[in-house]
Design a protein that fits this description.
Layout lengths: L2 E3 L2 H9 L7 E6 L5 H13 L2 E6 L19 H10 L4 E3 L3 H4 L17 H5 L3 H16 L3 E5 L3 H13 L5 E5 L19 H6 L1 H15 L5 H12 L5 E9 L15 E9 L2 E9 L4
Parallel strand pairs: 1-4, 2-3, 2-5, 3-4, 5-6
Antiparallel strand pairs: 7-8, 8-9
Helix pairs in contact: 6-7, 9-10
The protein binds adenosine monophosphate.
């Protein structure tokens, strides 16, 4: 049975009762669980003795015109999936439990959160860092697993954990995709059939640029142009950014060199915003 913990007191009591020496693995989510989430649960399962997930649609990381109110919340189906995956407990707090009135402290990472999604979603990573630090403090896991699907989020969390000496090991799980390459996302359910048909171009743009890089094109601007060219094959796709960045600092680069690069793309299809990325290996 996956135990449902709805408040901090229940979570703390559960945590305190774990056998001494048991390694605790943690997978934070916003629910609407899919195979991407479940791969992170499996990774935690393999590396830890006890696994806890959280489902919390964090209001602090949504902008005023974003999809907080319509974000999917299929709780029964989520609980069944956690049960099947052998996840021991799930932390399921209400918004007031996480943010009692008067909360006035927030976590702001100031470097890797600046470009890409940070530039187009002001306050987003402040919301992410704040809720993740709170969750890590509450759960006190030995390790926590995050998806490479949100590569910039991983980078922000790794920085925060390092800079604030949070005693946890952060692991990344690979991107899980549909057969046609579309990265799994809770937001894919919003796509109209026509937009769903166009959406694999996002991954194709990444793969096309990877092929160009491996064939000898190392100029960052030229690579990004190639990526945008692939997205332009469908008028349904409105690119927000298509960028070639340093894989760790996420700083701008002119050419891809010995550090490799992160290819990062965000695009709108109708009212749905999708992101994807691919890591280029170092230039030999
Ligand atoms: P979310 O519920 O969207 O906040 O995602 C919870 C965790 O699942 C985050 O660490 C995401 O990066 C990860 N995740 C989301 N989609 C995927 C995917 N397609 N493959 C792997 N991990 C994913």
């Amino acid at each position: 049975m996956t135990l449902i913990l709805r408040d901090k007191a229940a979570l703390r009591a559960w945590r305190a009762a774990l056998p001494a020496g048991a390694r605790l693995g943690f997978v934070p989510t916003m629910g609407a669980l899919h195979e991407g989430h479940m791969s992170l649960m499996a990774q935690a399962r393999a590396a830890a003795d006890v696994v806890i997930a959280s489902i919390f649609v964090n209001p602090l990381q949504f902008g005023p015109n974003e999809d907080l109110s319509r974000y999917p919340r299929p709780l029964e189906a989520d609980l069944e999936k956690l049960e099947k995956a052998g996840v021991e407990a799930v932390f399921l707090p209400a918004a007031e439990e996480m943010y009692p009135p008067g909360a006035s402290t927030f976590v702001e990472e100031t470097m890797v959160s600046a470009p890409l999604c940070g530039a187009v979603r002001p306050g987003h990573f402040r919301g992410v860092a704040t809720v993740v630090l709170k969750l890590l403090n509450l759960v006190q896991p030995h390790l926590a697993v995050f998806g490479q699907k949100d590569a910039q989020q991983c980078a922000v969390i790794e920085r925060m954990v390092r800079d604030f000496d949070v005693p946890v090991e952060i692991r990344r799980g690979p991107i899980v995709r549909e057969a046609d390459g579309l990265a799994l996302s809770s937001r894919n359910v919003y796509l109209s059939p026509q937009d769903r048909a166009a959406a694999p171009l996002i991954h194709q743009s990444l793969r096309t640029v990877e092929a160009a890089y491996l064939a000898g094109e190392h100029d960052a601007e030229a690579l990004a142009r190639i990526g945008l060219g692939v997205l332009a094959r469908s008028a349904r796709i409105v690119p927000q950014y298509w960028e070639v960045r340093d894989p760790e600092s996420l700083g701008a680069i002119a050419t891809v060199g010995a550090r490799g690069a992160l290819l990062a793309v965000a695009a709108h299809l109708g009212s749905t915003r999708l992101i994807d990325n691919l890591v280029l290996p170092p230039r030999p």
